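Ticket opened by: R.M.
Priority: normal
Category: complex prediction / small molecule

The reporter submitted a protein together with iron/sulfur cluster and asked that the result be attached to this ticket for the collaborator who will pick it up next week. Submitted input follows.
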Amino acid sequence: MTKTIRLSAGTAAVAGLTRMRLAEAPTTAYIMVGEVCSAKCGFCPQSKCATSGPGLLSRVNWPKFTVSQAVAALAGAVADRRFERICIQVVQSDHSSDLCQELVRDLRASVAAPVAVSAAPADIDSAVSWLQAGADRIGLPLDAACERVYAEVKQASWSRSLAVIEEAANRFPGRVSTHLIVGLGETEEEAIAFLELMAKYGVTVGLFAFTPVKGTPLASQASPAVEVYRRVQVARFLIDKKFPGVKFAFSEGRLTGWGVHESTLKQLLADGEAFRTSGCAACNRPYYNERPRGVMFNYPRPLRSHEAVACIEAALGMTPERG
Ligand code: SF4
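Result attached by the on-call engineer:
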């Protein structure tokens, strides 16, 4: 049987497999392996409790290609410097872990780009097998900021998943990422405590904004307020860069202080870097959480100065940001 995988719509277009006008091009090639996940994440169209259809991940369409077609196209696109990285999203379904291992080997043999593998932190053995196959990084998305939200939204064991991430971070220092989805019901204080815990483990955090998707249990829930998202982005940036003097203050779970003078904060944030997509190097995920004409939660490119000013003002609670 011919093996098939899915590519995000933007990836397929940049790889020349489809024709599509892109407002922003992905700098990482996103691949999906497996379909119809055995997990029950309430926000995910791939989860076994969703009715969204097999070709969706977040709000993005993922057309299907044969493995040989996709690998050949990605090899050409990487050689042309159209992609700087490859990321394989592994859906927890039959044989997906083995297919991912084979795919990492195929990619390492013919595509000159680093390969990340992103999969639920179910067990350490799979992560080890993908790194041994040639992946340079492992993404183990926790998605939820704390045990309370994890149980509600993912219906899985927080302590077990956290233990897998901690072990991976100890065994493969500097090579582990996780994801945090803002807007699943956590407070800003819980989200920032999560960021500080991951920094302690040495785990890179990719921030996502909750995106309601038709056919999922959380389809009627709203995306986070952009001001909340901006504050969490700034906190992630300050923690990641280890800026001295940062001391977060909270009131009823809401972030109310940074421990840094506002003028200093504005200087630190002036280039807008804090509001760009975070995660592995070169992972820019264009329109993964946004509509082209909506609010841009994660900027997939350097910000223009007026965009940076608007983001800073939203984060510091001066002027609400509008799409
Ligand atoms: S941060 Fe990006 S490249 Fe890294 S595992 Fe997550 S989606 Fe993949």
